[in-house]
Amino acid sequence: MPVRSEKHRDRRFKMTPQRLAILDYLKGNVQHPAADDVFRAVRRKYPTMSFATVYNTLEALKKRGMVKELTGDPDKKRFDPNTSPHHHLICTNCRKIVDIPVQFDLDFAEQYREGFVITGSHIEFSGICLECRNRSRA
Ligand code: ZN
Ligand code: MN
User: Fold this and answer.
1) 15 and 52: one domain?
2) How far is the CA of 138 from the centre of ligand 1 (A)?
3) How many folded domains does the chain comprise?
4) Residue 93 CA: which ligand is closest?
5) Cα(63) to centroid of ligand 1, in Å?
6) In a domain, 114, yes or no
7) Tens digit of pLDDT for each residue in 66-83?
8) In this structure, how many other beta carbons lie within 10 angstroms of the beta carbon of residue 26?
9) Which ligand has the nearest atom to the CA of 123?
10) Is pLDDT at 24 greater than 90 in this prediction?
11) What is the structure's pLDDT at 5?
12) Does 113 map to a domain?
C-alpha cells in the first residue's frame, strides 16, 4: 500500500551531521531558543549551515514531537526540547523563558468543558525577571 509506506518514510528522521548538530545543541537546553539562536550556535561548528536547514529541522522535530513550540514570545517562535508537561515563566522585558516544574491542579467543572476531553494544558506566567528588576533599580 503506497499510502502506508509514504507515511512510514515520513516518520523516519534521516540523521545528517547538520541535523545531529542541531539536536546536540538542543539536548538539555533550558534557554528555549528561537531558530536564530540555534542557527548562531550551530553555525560556529558548521559554517556551511543555512538558516533554512535550522528552520526546517526544527519544524521536522516539532512534527515528530521531539521539540515543543512555545508561543509566549510575541517576537518569535521559541523551541523547547523538554517535551514533558511543564509550565513557564516569561519575562515581558527580555523575553527570558524559565521552566516551572510544578504541577498545578487545573480541574474545572464539567459544565464549562463544552464536551471536550482535556488532554493537556500549559500555563505561561508573565512578569519581570530578577535581572531586569535589578537593572531597572540601578
Ligand atoms: Zn528579563
Ligand atoms: Mn520549558
Assistant:
1) yes
2) 14
3) 2
4) 1
5) 30
6) yes
7) 999 998 899 999 999 999
8) 22
9) 2
10) yes
11) 45
12) yes
Instruction: Judge whether 26 lies within some domain.
Output: yes
- The model's pLDDT over 87-126, given as tens digits with 9 standing for 90+, comes to 999 999 999 999 999 988 888 999 999 999 988 889 999 9
On whether both 35 and 89 belong to a single domain, the answer is: no
Q: Are residues 25 and 52 in the same domain?
A: yes
List 116's β-bridge partners, or say none: none
CA of 111 to the centre of ligand 1 (A): 39
User: Taking a C-beta distance cutoff of 8 angstroms, is the pair 73, 34 a contact?
Assistant: yes
| Residue 128: closest CA among 138, 136, 117, 116 | 136
Q: Show the domain range for 96.
A: 84-137
Q: How far apart are CA 79 and CA 67, in angstroms?
A: 6
- Ligand 1: centre distance to CA 112 (Å): 35
Which-ligand-closest: CA of 128?
A: 1
- pLDDT confidence of 31, banded at 50, 70, 90? very high
- 88 shares its domain with 65: no
In the reported structure, the alpha carbon of residue 132 is separated from the centroid of ligand 2 by a whole-number distance in angstroms of: 20
The average confidence (pLDDT) of the chain is 90
Q: Same structural domain for residues 21 and 48?
A: yes
Q: What SS3 class is residue 108?
A: coil
What residues pack around ion ligand 2 (CB closer than 5 A)? 80, 82, 99
